[in-house]
Amino acid sequence: MQELDDLDKLEQTKSKDDLDIKRENLKQGLQKLKERTIKYDTLQQQLNNTTDKQISTTDPDSRSILITKSNVEVAYNVQNAVDDKHNLIVQTQATNTNDGKALHKAATQAKENLQLKNEDSLMVLADKGYHTGAELQQCQDDNMITHVAYKEQPGVKHIANEFLSESFAYDKDTDSYTCPAGATLTSLGTWHNKKGEANETSYRFKTYRTNACKNCPLKSQCTKLPKRIIHRSEYQDAVDINDNNIKQNPQYYKRRQAIVEHPFGTIKRHFGFTHTLLKGLQKVNGEMNLIMFCYNFMRTKNILGFNKMLETIKNWQPDYSKIVCALKNGFVKVIYRQNEPRYFLQIYPMRFFKAV
């Protein structure tokens, strides 16, 4: 009996010790949760005090960037412009945004680096990520011929393919649309604002409609609403010009991938450069310019040969007035001279992720 009593006392002692350990673990867990709550509340306060919707805790300048439809990475997005003749990089800049608003700035800087005048023509090839009406309009206003891939209009369940908006013919003289059934859609001339993610005005558009929908026998194939409504962006003319360029000259756009193979393949596969070593947009910008300079150096050596390149460097008289201080805006412009009046440029984004 004494032995049983001793075992009962030992079990009670162990149970008490286990309970104390559990209480201590719970106390530590609650403390960690409180610290985490304070941390996230602080981050939320920082977000509330800025117009930016993101905060990176590893690199304050890096942002989550859409890589594919379902793949988002915290990264930098490097914009490159590559000339068609020699596959040399004529413009590069690291950014922390997507491609939607990068086309005009990249093409303008490339045109400046090529020492082209405003009246000189420049042909720009880019993928569909750069297809933004405002960017296309600015490029065309600056005498650039855009060949930017356009996104095919997706099908709609309740609308037959013959009645998609691209099947409605626009008449610029009367500012009206004609539907496939022959009815005319007109606008009241009121401009509406399309809001972006930050609630800013992304672009303006007008709406077009007709009363003929009420008695149209094809209405069920066209819309479920009382009237079919067509939206027209203020940049639609520029979009139409660009899309017609693609349709009429498909051979130009097909060259895009071939042009970009040199920088993309060489830097990421041959050089093995897939992650940035520095943090902060300004430093990453300098890092990218150095790696692009190395690419151009090797590419030039392959084109001219080592001896001829060395002789050219010895006889080179640099124009230092063209060099922008790296401390001022984070990059040095590379001047590349060409005598041909027209150039093909490939605008291509390369994502570089932060090394862990």
Question: Layout of helices and strands, plus pairs?
Answer:
Elements: H1 2-48, E1 63-68, E2 71-83, E3 89-95, H2 103-113, E4 122-126, H3 133-141, E5 144-148, E6 169-171, E7 176-178, E8 184-186, E9 192-195, E10 201-208, H4 219-222, E11 230-233, H5 236-248, H6 250-254, H7 256-270, E12 275-276, H8 281-304, H9 306-314, H10 326-329, E13 344-354
Helix pairs in contact: 2-3, 3-5, 8-9
Quick tags:
single chain; 356 residues; alpha+beta; 3 domains; seven-stranded mixed beta sheet; three-stranded antiparallel beta sheet; 40% helix
Describe the structure.
The chain is of the alpha+beta class. The chain folds into three domains: 1-50; 64-151 and 244-354, no CATH class; 161-235, no CATH class. The chain is 40% helix and 21% strand. It contains ten helices and 13 strands. The strands form three sheets. Strands 1, 2, 3, 4, 5, 12 and 13 form a seven-stranded mixed β-sheet that branches. It has a three-stranded antiparallel β-sheet with strand order 6-7-8, with no helix packed on it. A hairpin with a 4-residue loop joins β6 (169-171) and β7. α2 (103-113) packs parallel to α3 (133-141), α3 (133-141) packs across α5 (236-248) and α8 (281-304) crosses α9 (306-314). The relative contact order is 0.16.
